[in-house]
Amino acid sequence: MEQPINFFSGFSFNDLLFLGEAAGRTILISILSITIGTIFGCLFGWILQVSGTAGAVSVGAFLDIFRSVPLIIQLILFYNFAPMIGLSLDPFASGVIVLSIYAAALVANVARGGIEAVGRPMRRAARSLGMSYWQDMRYVVWPIGLRAVFPAWVGVALGVMKDSALVSVLGYVELLKASQILITRTQEPFIILTVAGAFYFALSYPLSRYSARLEERWSQ
Amino acid sequence: MEYTFHWRPVFRALPDLLDAGLLTLQVAALSMVFGVVFGLGLAIIRLNARGPLLWAASTWIELARNTPALFQLFFFGFGLGAFGWHLSPYAIVLVGLSFNNAGYLAENFRGGFKALPPTQLRAARSLGMTATQAYIRIIIPQVLRIVYHPMTNQMVWAVLMSSLGMLVGFRELSGETQFFASKTFRIFEYFAVTAVIYYVIVKLILAMSRLLAMRLFRY
């Protein structure tokens, strides 16, 4: 008696490990691109705020492109463009680069808002106390501006974390791609998507609640 | 650089791409209409209701805001298949985007409702309006004015998010581009033109919203 061949097998404990590993990759790519994006975003935000109109307009227009074109298109474009100029990048590296620029474009606005949140009289006072420009930035603008825009920054960071799911189009096996692979094999989309969604939620929800509470406390 | 760009096939496909761009605009605009209606409902429930209704509204809002939009599309596309509900690609994108928009807009609306002085509602009620009348004629128009700017942003996000339709088989602008790109392997050229189309759509929406604001908010 021949056994019928079954190409599909159920959801098992090993699959959970596979999802966990993929979740680790989601966290890794998110942390990397949020960090790099924040550093460059602060730099761009500072340029937007201090430079004369020509500089601010050109940097602003450049960053605006990344906020006006879907991230998925940016990823595909970069991934196909890099080989043309002789760069051979794997999906992970491409993903980190594109996500970082995207994050930087979003953080730039937040950072500019933070610098502008510190009033002109306050900064004049700092300078007239004998602080240098950078001392003023470090000891006056940074602590006050950070308070003003920290919740907005958390929002951007969580947005980048969620958007990291799009790197799956390049073939990087992060959480959502891993769940797709498992769905193809197990044919149990509901359970697997619920597990994946629960993970994203568990990562994002506490942080967003925390920042909302901070915002409330600081606004008093 | 040894790559030779071939733009001609892209320009030949341009009319199809622009048609697909209209489809993108259509699905984004429809999802905004649903998003505003459900978002208003969710915000009112979250501010006023108790018990299971409040729980359901909060769950909707938090799920929409704390999971990736792509996950939401997959859920409506494949996850519901487990219950035998199979949506068409168009429906997946429309339902997914509406769900997402409603969640984000609900929080904006909640801020808008809170920004209105409570005396507005009491004044309306004391003029003899019912609660429904007061909401429809007094409260909601003022809230919509407060959240006009975030709503414009959400519309831009809806257009950008609709590009995820590509991954669930919907042939809006990105899906159509993907279709052409895989026929000719001129991936970069096609997506570069598509990126420009998205940019123009976004700028048009922002310009229109500014014009509309000038007409609507003349005092």
How do the strands and helices of this protein lay out in sequence?
The complex is a heterodimer of chains A (220) and B (219).
Chain A: H1 13-50, H2 53-68, H3 71-81, H4 91-117, H5 120-128, H6 133-163, H7 175-186, H8 189-218
Helix pairs in contact in A: 1-2, 1-4, 1-6, 1-7, 2-4, 3-4, 4-6, 5-6, 6-8, 7-8
Chain B: H1 8-48, H2 51-66, H3 69-77, H4 89-115, H5 119-126, H6 131-146, H7 148-161, H8 173-184, H9 187-216
Helix pairs in contact in B: 1-2, 1-4, 1-7, 1-8, 1-9, 2-4, 3-4, 4-6, 4-7, 5-6, 7-9, 8-9
Give a short account of the largest sheet of chain A: none
How would you name the oligomeric state of the polypeptide chains in this document? heterodimer
CATH architecture of chain B: Orthogonal Bundle
How many DSSP H or I helices of chain B? Answer: 9
Which two chains form the greatest contact, residue counts included?
A-B, 38 and 38 residues
How much of the sequence lies in strands of chain B comes to under 5%
What attributes characterize this protein structure?
heterodimer; A: 220 residues; mainly alpha; MetI-like fold; 79% helix; B: 219 residues; 9 helices; 0% strand
Q: Can you tell me about this structure?
A:
The complex is a heterodimer of chains A (220) and B (219). Chain A is mostly helical and 220 residues long. Chain A has eight helices and no strands. In chain B, 79% of the residues lie in helices and 0% in strands. Chain B contains nine helices and no strands. Chain B has a single domain, classed as MetI-like fold, CATH 1.10.3720. The interface between A and B is large, with 38 and 38 residues.
